[in-house]
Amino acid sequence: MTQQARIPYITVEDYLEGELHSDIRHEYVAGQVFAMVGSTLGHNRVVGNIATFLNSRLRGTPCSAYVSDVKVRIEAADAFYYPDVVVSCEAADLSALYLTEPVLVVEVLSPSTETTDRREKRLNYQKLPSLKEYVLVAPDAVQVEVYRRGQAGWEEVEIYGPEDTAVRLVSLDLAIPVAEIYTGVR
């Protein structure tokens, strides 16, 4: 006999309350929650390198870079994600639980998240009117993909490799050296 199980629907309010008390992080998509897996030391090093570089260059501006523990809400997708690095220039209350207007999102790829980062998250993040660039970084090879919003929508992608000296971030009018991204990884 076939057995059926109901997948419980979680409200946004219950999700946010649960995240305040949980020992692990969860992402939220349309009433479902998904536990986040840990990362490798290389993944963590790349995230730290990017966030450190961005925060040093953004000091004195209205923008800030945040790392893995800050959620982004995408109301149009009924989703909350924890990007590896997110830059926002919104005037957010420092006690806020999430950001809603990022200009830049960076995801460092891993075998367990790459498909989701390339498809679901990329398409959902692109629903944010404030977002100008979505960046995917390979932690184990020198490859950075920058998806950029143009005049007619998400029409541009630039791929940077070991032969490139810097990754251009138009959203922040910055270029981050490729060597800076991968410092201590290789």
Automatic annotation (TrEMBL):
Pfam families: Uma2. Residues 12-168 form the Putative restriction endonuclease domain. The lineage of its organism: Bacteria, Pseudomonadati, Pseudomonadota, Gammaproteobacteria, Methylococcales. It comes from Methylomarinovum tepidoasis. It comes from the Bacteria. This is Putative restriction endonuclease domain-containing protein.
